[in-house]
């Protein structure tokens, strides 16, 4: 395995250095033990390890989102089983260089938003700063206490042709990847424990420990128990998994812009209990989107008034707003001189060679060498993509030159670095792929310096000779190993974190609403599966000589299916009843149509994804299984019978999710809101099925079949037979499904469960009188307890309709709607995302 890699390296004549081997085919000393291990296990075992790594990440729910791809949501994270490796001596130099660079950028940040002496004295051209959208004038003269303004820093590095590591990009605004780095290491540790232990691979937990301690030390007024939230753009963001993961891992509250509000100068978190003051915001939202009042007024990701709260020192935002100016690639051309001026030192880590076009001499150089350079806008964004000069035609080059001439200060030319290759396991063999390494640095307020994570996130290109390594372009992630000289202690992440008092993690209203709808869509999906499954079975068993609309049982079930799913006109039209198969298959597969099974399961998964920081690892394994089943169900060209078998698999997995959460979720508002949603939906569906399946009396056999199917849909047929031991009759069916408090599928049981969960919510226990929602619920419970089953089971001799039953069920449905409305108003209304019985917010696909 290694021999073929070395042979190819010797004879391929590529201009790239290799991380593992020399051009002569000799293995670098720090790679020898790792290469020997790969040789010993062989290709077959290595392939198995690759599958195991993928399984570990998949079961842990590690995903990312690809923009512009219909199937790009929740894409599995890909990890190469071959790491990026640094030997200890080289890492010590790299560590020093990263600390120096971070300290330099920190001083530049302080100066740009302070005295601006670097601009006044000519070390930085003013056009380079004031024309960059990352420079926020509103942040002028705003600073954190202490000298460290830049709290988190990342840089993308690659090894150049001279063997040195070069900085390609500085990441200071909302650097991502630290969560994925931890998951990569966790997966590799499980699969290669001996290899990691024998090579004394350094642990990366110190980074997270330092970050947590730094947050405690930075808190305004030295507050002992700060409320820390991680501000995320939301579930559609590229790295939302990481936002949820870090929040859960480090004990922060995951929040979206809609979860926060500014009042009285303070930032508040909207929770189901009320407003909770926020002390620290770790933002993963780009600075321009953080406050629509002062920056982009079209942003729905930020918090109105946040900047003013920062000015008044009522909240800390990390990294501070305005940090993105340091990502300006034009600064790289001036860093060596600034380093000499501010630090009195040469810059240890060189930047990729950069020419800022705002200077005549440099612009001339760029024009003369454009075919060998990468042309970049000084502001990184989706509208300003890098251009490789060598890929342009003469006409395109000329057009680009004209654009630069119009705004020369907005462009830089950068050298195209032939960065090194690293071995990657591709197509069951080792192949050389160009790789980039992302480092992570965090402020250490105790030592007044910076600490570098001894590792990081490396990414390699999926194609040979290509330099595009981002996740959006299909890049493959790699764990990064820093080899130590001796074995490190086995202390856990939490061992060195300062002892802090217990703080209950509050539940944001938006999260509570998502949990409520998670329960709703769980029951909605389960009821829909059961009813479609029974309808398909009845349809396949029906007499072919009788039209569907002439079959009272099948016609009633089909119309009930339309009523339950709300997919009007559906089977209410006679034409659809004549040929029901297309509509039945649509109810199973059509994800774009509200109310279908696919739509309900997709909505269930979307709500689960939005609260993933509240769900256990085992729960995510079940959710992944449901997602895979949904994909198979949608993409397969199925007959009705194949659809029937698919539904069997789906209902089992939905019930597995329910069972797992009964055992695993702590009995906090998270649990109670999930179950309130479940039981409201269950009661509403129970009423709908009773009202539509048993609305009319037919002949004796048809009535028995409809009653049996009604019991089956409510999982109560076995219970009925056990209790009544008689033929099916209306009185017994209604008693079991309405009045029996020990039957979990009865209306009374479901309403009592809603009440028991409601009593535990904030502001309920302290109330001397019943809340409005509990009054509505009590009214429904009282109506059920006072109802006369004999009256409800009486059929009108003329119309053959159960008028009293229908009227009674309409009253219960109305009270359920009222209860849901009041719950929404009391706990979710300020999230502004819809109505209580219908979730109207846009649901991105997963």
TrEMBL record:
SUPFAM superfamilies: Glutathione synthetase ATP-binding domain-like. Pfam families: Alpha-E (PF04168), CP_ATPgrasp_2 (PF14403). Residues 83-460 form the Circularly permuted ATP-grasp type domain. Residues 507-828 form the DUF403 domain. Transmembrane segments: none annotated. It comes from the Bacteria. This is Uncharacterized protein. It comes from Algoriphagus machipongonensis.
């Amino acid at each position: 395995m290694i021999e073929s890699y070395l042979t190819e390296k010797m004879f391929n004549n590529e201009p790239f250095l290799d991380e593992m081997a020399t051009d002569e085919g000799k293995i670098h000393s720090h790679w020898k033990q790792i290469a020997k291990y790969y040789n010993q296990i062989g290709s077959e075992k290595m392939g198995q390890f690759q599958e195991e790594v993928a399984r570990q990440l998949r079961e842990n729910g590690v995903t990312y989102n690809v923009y512009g791809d219909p199937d790009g949501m929740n894409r599995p994270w890909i990890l190469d089983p071959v790491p990026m490796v640094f030997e200890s001596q080289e890492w010590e130099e790299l560590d020093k260089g990263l600390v120096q660079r971070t300290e330099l950028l920190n001083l530049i940040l302080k100066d740009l938003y302070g005295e601006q002496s670097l601009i006044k004295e000519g070390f930085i051209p003013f056009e380079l700063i004031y024309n960059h959208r990352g420079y926020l004038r509103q942040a002028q003269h705003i600073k954190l206490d202490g000298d460290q303004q830049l709290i988190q820093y990342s840089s993308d590095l690659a090894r150049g042709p001279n063997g040195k590591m070069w900085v390609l990009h500085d990441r200071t605004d909302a650097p991502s990847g630290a969560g994925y780095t931890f998951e990569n290491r966790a997966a590799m540790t499980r699969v290669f424990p001996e290899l990691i232990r024998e090579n004394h691979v350094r642990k990366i937990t110190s980074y997270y420990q330092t970050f947590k301690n730094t947050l405690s030390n930075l808190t305004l007024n030295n507050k002992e128990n700060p409320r820390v939230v991680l501000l995320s753009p939301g579930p559609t963001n590229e790295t939302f998994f990481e936002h949820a993961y870090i929040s859960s891992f480090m004990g922060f509250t995951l929040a979206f812009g809609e979860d926060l509000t500014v009042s009285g100068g303070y930032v508040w978190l909207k929770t189901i209990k009320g407003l909770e003051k926020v002390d620290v915001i770790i933002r993963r939202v780009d600075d321009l989107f953080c406050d629509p009042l002062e920056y982009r007024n079209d942003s729905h990701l930020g918090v109105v008034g946040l900047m003013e709260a920062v000015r008044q020192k009522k909240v800390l935002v990390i990294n501070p707003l305005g940090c993105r100016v340091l990502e300006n690639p034009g600064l790289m051309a001036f860093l060596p001189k600034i380093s000499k001026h501010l630090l009195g030192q040469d810059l240890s880590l060189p930047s990729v060679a950069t020419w800022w076009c705002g200077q005549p001499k440099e612009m001339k150089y760029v024009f003369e060498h454009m075919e060998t350079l990468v042309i970049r806008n000084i502001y990184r964004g989706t509208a300003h993509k890098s251009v490789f000069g060598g890929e342009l035609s003469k006409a395109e080059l000329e057009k680009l030159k004209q654009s630069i001439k119009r705004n020369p200060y907005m462009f830089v030319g950068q050298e195209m670095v032939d960065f090194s290759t690293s071995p990657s396991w591709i197509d069951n063999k080792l192949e050389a792929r160009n790789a980039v390494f992302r480092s992570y640095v965090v402020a250490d307020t105790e030592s007044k310096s910076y600490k570098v994570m001894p590792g990081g996130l490396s990414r390699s290109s999926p194609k040979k000779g290509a330099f595009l390594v981002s996740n959006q372009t299909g890049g493959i992630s790699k764990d990064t190993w820093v080899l130590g000289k001796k074995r490190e202690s086995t202390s856990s992440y939490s061992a060195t974190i300062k002892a802090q008092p217990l703080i209950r993690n509050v539940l944001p209203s938006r999260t509570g609403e998502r949990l409520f709808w998670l329960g709703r869509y769980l029951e909605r999906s389960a009821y829909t599966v059961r009813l479609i499954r029974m309808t398909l079975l009845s349809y396949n068993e029906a007499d072919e000589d009788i039209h569907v609309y002439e079959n009272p049982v099948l016609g009633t079930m089909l119309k009930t299916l339309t009523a339950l799913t709300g997919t009007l006109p559906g089977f209410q039209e006679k034409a659809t009843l004549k040929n029901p198969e297309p509509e039945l298959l649509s109810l199973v597969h059509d994800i774009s149509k509200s109310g279908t099974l696919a739509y309900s399961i997709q909505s269930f998964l979307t709500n689960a994804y939005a609260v993933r920081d509240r769900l256990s690892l085992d729960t995510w394994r079940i959710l992944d299984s449901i997602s895979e089943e949904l994909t198979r169900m949608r993409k397969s060209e199925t007959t009705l019978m194949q659809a029937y078998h698919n539904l069997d698999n789906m209902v089992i997995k939905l019930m597995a999710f329910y069972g797992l959460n009964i055992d695993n979720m702590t009995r906090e508002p998270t649990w109670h809101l999930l179950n309130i949603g479940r039981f409201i939906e269950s009661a509403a569906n129970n009423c709908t099925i009773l009202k539509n399946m048993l609305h009319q009396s037919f002949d004796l056999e048809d009535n028995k079949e409809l009653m049996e199917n009604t019991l089956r849909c409510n999982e109560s047929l076995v219970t009925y037979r056990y209790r009544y031991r008689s033929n099916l009759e209306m009185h017994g069916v209604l008693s079991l499904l309405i009045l029996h408090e020990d039957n979990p599928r009865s209306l009374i049981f479901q309403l009592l469960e809603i009440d028991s969960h409601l009593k535990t919510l904030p502001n309920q226990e302290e109330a001397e009188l019943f809340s409005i929602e509990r009054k509505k619920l009590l009214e429904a419970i009282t109506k059920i307890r006072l109802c006369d089953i004999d009256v409800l089971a009486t059929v009108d001799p003329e119309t053959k309709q159960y008028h009293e039953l229908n009227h009674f069920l309409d009253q219960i449905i109305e009270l359920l709607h009222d209860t849901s409305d009041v719950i929404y108003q009391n706990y979710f209304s300020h999230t502004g995302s819809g109505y209580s019985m219908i979730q109207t917010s846009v649901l991105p696909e997963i």
